[in-house]
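FW: tagging you since you asked about this chain on Friday. Here's the raw sequence from the shared folder, copied in full. Didn't touch anything.
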Amino acid sequence: MSIQNLMASSSSEGVSRRGFLRASAALGGGLLIGISLPGFAGSSQGQDSNFTPNAYIRIEPSGKVVFVIQPVEMGQATYTSMPALIAEELEVGLDQIIVEHAPADDTRYANPALGFQVTGGSTSVPANWKPLREAGAAARMLLISAAANQWGVAADSCKAENGSVFHPASGRKLGYGEVAGAAAKLPIPDTLALKPSSEFKLIGTPAKRTDGQDKVTGKAVFGIDVRPEGMKVAAITICPVVGGTLKAVEPGPAMAIKGVRQVIKTDNSVAVVADHMGAARKGLATLQIQWDGGQNASVSSEQMLEAIKKASMQPGRQSRKEGDAEGVLKTATRKVDAVYQVPFLAHACMEPVNCTVHVRKDGCELWVGSQVPARAKAIAAELTGLPEDKVEVHNQLLGGGFGRRLEVDFVAHAVKIAKQVDYPVKVIYSREEDTRHSSLRPYHYNHLSAALDEQGRPVAWVHKVTGGSILARWLPAAFKDGIDRDAVRDPSGPYAFPNISAYYVRHEPPEGIYPAFWRGVGHTQNGFMVESFLDELAHIAKIDPFEYRYPLLQKHPRLLKVLETLREKSGWGTPMGNREGRGLALTYCFGTYAAQVAEVSVQPSGEVKVKRITSVVDCGIAINPDSVVAQMQGGTIFGLTAALFGDITFKDGRVEQGNFDTYRILRINETPHFDVHIIKSEDAPGGLGEVSTVLIAPAVTNAIFAATGKRLRRLPIDPSELRQA
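HL: got it, structure written out here
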């Protein structure tokens, strides 16, 4: 998902440290450091009576350290990286910090980079890098001062280590819990001494994930695992035609199944509630349901493709203009034009979407894994008619998010069902329902043009993006002047062309198909197109793809270093076999510089085998290098799955794909060998969760061209285009 920087950027400049850090006594004694991160909606920084932190550290009299965290954990190691920032400055181990989910609250727990409660856009580490370290440092200094006061010594004669304060000269020691109450009465220091990187013990050092053991052993609780007292389970089916409605259903056959409690109807769905999922699924399978497909009953992928082709011929709204690209193209003697396409994509999270709801007359409780818990709370309040303060969201670990859990459609379905029963009900989508009723990364149909000089170098670049707008639906305030700024992200990559123009043509799919964030979105679409088209130009110029890019990246010395390292580590230029090739792709996104080389072989049947992926990444300071490697591997697999197999298609208004037999994911035996190299850096960290997803498709298709001479401008990769006659 790419949503950072779509709202006004936040900054702590001009806000006093006392304005976003406060010390007070925790409930039951101890120390509470409240963190009102700058830039979020509803902030009352500097107003003592209304201070509303959106994160906090609580040190209890027992010495236990609790961190209430805003970003959710959905596999990206947030519950390891965020506590590490605090632990480093607080002088405790990662194993000494207990992490708690933040409650659903857009005001108190807003993402500091975006202004509302959301996990996405690879913002968690960059947005919290400095504030959480300062909070940890403030707590450490208060605890040292409290201990020093108790001993009657100077604070600078004491030090903190492993959850205790020491006075080396006298050998005295006090645990944090013993001085937490006294520390709560002290003011936040005006100056905080953050550690230099040379003194880091945790940051930059590989660490085991704090949630790893519980996930491996099954102790971790995801949304699908919750079981409040008295809960029943519901299997749901939604009208298979997008935007369609329910006409009629006879519940009798399902009610005859042992364990079935109720058949529930909504405007566009039927759910069978039972004592357990087996009975619910069996009951649902017995029903003869009549649907009304409405205006979308004949919609097909072929129709949508023709419509978007036609729309792409419109001039569009100009989103970027540097120089006179159109003028240069008109007079150019060497000009290259291309059309690139990327398909609709679902998210295919390992945990299908689900939500458990208990609606009572006086309140409503939700147990759900959500990237936007405050939105889940709001939709429940709207549907039940309850005030929001009567709705409680128990956010759980997420078994994959990738943007799918930025939506609340599945929460709405669960609430509609729960309103018709008097007990908690867990609504679980089957894999097929999850795929066929997912929000989708939008279909894009893009035109690219370049004018080349006598050496084959680009002197003008025009990129026109055509597709549905995510922001117009999901974040209307960020959709301005008819332009979806996410859709036109990086229309020319990080390259410095003399003349650049970019345009956006908004073309929406039929109603009921919702363009949505998908682990990178605009970056993943335009990255494929820009890196592939530039590779075309390098081939025309008969210049090595690395050499072709170097002159265009002089404004990005960090990216040049990434490329130099990648060229060495990947074995670029060494001999390969018949129908084998290497492909290059690079990106600068989410504050991170990265590049990949893919090695592929193409069988006579056209099947593509990706053998090896070499990645080099400069993400600033790597808080946990192991997590960096995992993110680069996981994002690459996610993106490679999409490049090879990802395609949501429609026939008669219905999504044709269902389970993993028709919406394939990469299998273990198809997974390439990975080499990940991290550039050592002292710069502030960038985001990482979506970076490798941007790189892999163009790296592979460029490698396919090197192996076969066949240029692929449309995803997913079609083996029939690569078969030998």
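FW: The CA atoms of residues 99 and 636 lie 28 Å apart.
HL: agreed, and Residues 1-16, 39-50 have pLDDT under 50 and may be disordered.
FW: great, closing this out.
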